[in-house]
Amino acid sequence: xxKNLDLQERVEFRTSDGMFTVTADQRIKTWNATAEKLFGYRxxxxxxxxxxxxxxxxxxxxxxxxxxxxxxVSNAAKGRTTRDFDLxxxxxEGVVKNINMSIMLxxxxxxxxxxxxxxxxxxxxxxxxxxxxSSDFHPTGNLPESGSGLAPAGYRLPPLTTREDxxxxxxxxxxxxxxxxxILAIRPLTARNHIxxxxxxLGCRSRLExxxxxxxxxxx
Length: 220
What we know:
The chain has ten helices and five strands. It is of the alpha+beta class. Strand 1 and strand 2 (28-31) form a beta hairpin.
C-alpha cells in the first residue's frame, strides 16, 4: 500500500518547509500548504502552470536562473541533482522574496520524473548578512566623524563579531529570540546565548538599551 502513496502525500508528511514538484516540462504538479502561505497562491491557481511563469522575477542575481529549461531541469534530465541555491521569487502580490531551494529527484527505477523543490524563506537572513558585510559596518564600534550628532564625543562600543552585529541589527528591527533563530538558521537557545553575550559585552541590562547603544554608535 505504501508504494501506492503519491508524492504529495509522502512529502507533506512531517515537513515544515515549502514544497512543490514539477514535471519534466516544468509544469507544477504538487503545491503544499507552506507554499500557499509563503507565495499567496492556492493549489488550484498554480497546478498545471509553468513554474517560471508563477515564480520568476526576471532578475535573479544567483547562479541558478528561473526560466525555461533551467539548470535544475537540465541536470534532472541527466539524472543529476542540483546543489541548494538562493532564488528571487515573487509572491501573488508582487513582493520579491529570497528563497533557498533544495532539489530532490526520485529514486532511479521508480517510474517518476517529478522534480521535488523544498524551500524556505531567507529574505531577512540575507538582508542581515548583507548589512553586516556592507562597507559602513564598524566592527570595532568606531564612531562616525565628530559632529555627526549620533553620539557624544568619545563614545565607543567594544568590538563586535559578525554574528553579534547581525543579532544587534535584528533586535533593532524588533525581532524576538525565535525570529532571530529562524532568520539566522540557529537554535533558539543559541540565539538566546548570542543575545546574552551581546548585552554583557555592551554592558546593557536590556535589549532596548543595547539597540540604543548601537544606534548612538552608528552601527544601526
